[in-house]
Design a protein that fits this description.
Blueprint lengths: L9 H8 L12 E7 L2 E2 L13 E2 L1 H9 L4 E7 L4
Parallel strand pairs: 1-4
Antiparallel strand pairs: 2-3
């Protein structure tokens, strides 16, 4: 499954597909992801320059599950 499931993210999907994955050094080490955002910026916004237009709970869960790391918790930071 691709990292993002939204067609608005096709540009970033293609860019990420070129990336060479790094080895996970300590896959058993418990990690808390101390800062992440969820957003829906599919409507144009002049202040928003990120390539990813949509990043929701399913995308976060996919990133965690496919990372190879032992992510045991996350901290959501509201943005908006």
């Amino acid at each position: 499954m691709p990292r993002m499931i939204h067609p608005e993210n096709a540009e970033v999907d293609a860019w990420l597909a070129k990336e060479e994955p790094e080895a996970v050094i300590e896959p058993e080490l418990p990690i808390i992801d101390a800062h992440h955002h969820l957003w829906d910026q599919r409507k144009p916004a002049p202040w928003f320059s990120f390539r990813t237009k949509f990043f929701g709970p399913a995308e976060l869960a996919h990133d965690i599950a496919s990372s190879g790391h032992n992510v045991v918790g996350t901290v959501f930071v509201q943005c908006g």
